[in-house]
């Protein structure tokens, strides 16, 4: 939804809201809160996919209500374990948290993603080297794949999402988390990283996608992201494709998200899933 998630490359973790871009003059970040459902249809799909801890619809907003709070001590310990020569301890730590009752969403949002950020911080602060970071991210990806394999739901017809990074972008793990989050909830995801706008457009032209997800971690890549979105919209097999944007470069900046052509902005996996489901049903209703 770096969309580590949409905006999951942020260095400080808090559960983010969702921003709708249809009226740029009224854009505001909506923080998590429990709200009454005003759409039985959307309430049903939210409850089916994310359980009772999610509120559904408030006016035009889908608001995640997960009380996610990352524990710095746990994150530091997990990040230390994933760079050890033997990855067994990291795997056991992760599985223990799962067995203690952490949901898949919580594991994504409060363990895997923050640990990836912590590895990046360690590299910037010269606390570890590139080899350590590469090894750690590889192990995080393996655990991510394990989550999807164990808890993944069969893809639902029509729920196809193309997830891309801005051209030349090099921060991918967050987008992989969002891809796994969607896949585990019945979405068929196509992940394409670091390609050109033309390459992304060819993919969108060759297959029907309900949703395009774009992450931008570096502000230097905003213009490239805008070109990619424009190219995909122009050539997409789905002329009504909806665009969800996110990434560290957009965090707290809905004006930038609107400028590059997004329909909505999500700052984490749950937010991206809620928006994807909403856009899917909006398109189905309009068909």
TrEMBL record:
Coiled coil: none annotated. Transmembrane segments: none annotated. GO terms for molecular function: cobalamin binding; metal ion binding. Residues 158-284 form the B12-binding domain. InterPro entries: Cobalamin-bd, Cobalamin-bd_sf. This is B12-binding domain-containing protein. It comes from Rhodoblastus acidophilus (Rhodopseudomonas acidophila).
């Amino acid at each position: 939804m770096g969309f580590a998630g949409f905006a999951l490359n942020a260095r400080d973790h808090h559960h983010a809201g969702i921003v709708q871009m249809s009226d740029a003059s009224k854009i505001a970040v909506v923080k998590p809160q429990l709200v009454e459902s005003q759409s039985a249809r959307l309430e049903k799909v939210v409850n089916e996919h994310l359980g009772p801890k999610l509120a559904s619809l408030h006016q035009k907003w889908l608001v995640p209500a997960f009380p996610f709070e990352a524990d710095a001590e746990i994150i530091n310990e997990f990040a230390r374990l994933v760079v050890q020569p033997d990855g067994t301890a990291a795997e056991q730590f992760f599985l223990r948290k799962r067995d203690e009752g952490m949901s898949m969403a919580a594991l994504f949002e409060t363990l895997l993603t923050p640990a990836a950020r912590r590895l990046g911080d360690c590299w910037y602060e010269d606390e570890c080297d590139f080899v350590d970071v590469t090894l750690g991210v590889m192990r995080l990806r393996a655990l991510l794949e394990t989550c999807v394999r164990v808890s993944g739901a069969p893809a639902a017809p029509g729920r196809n999402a193309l997830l891309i990074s801005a051209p030349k972008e090099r921060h991918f793990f967050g987008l992989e988390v969002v891809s796994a989050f969607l896949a585990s909830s019945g979405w068929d995801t196509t992940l394409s990283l670091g390609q050109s706008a033309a390459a992304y457009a060819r993919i969108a032209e060759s297959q029907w996608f309900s949703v395009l997800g774009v992450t931008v971690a570096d502000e230097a890549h905003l213009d490239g992201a805008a070109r990619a979105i424009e190219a995909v919209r122009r050539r997409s097999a789905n002329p009504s494709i909806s665009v969800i944007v996110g990434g560290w470069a957009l965090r707290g900046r809905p004006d930038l998200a609107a400028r590059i052509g997004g329909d909505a902005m999500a700052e984490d996996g749950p937010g991206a899933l809620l928006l994807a489901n909403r856009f899917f049903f909006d398109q189905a209703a309009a068909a």
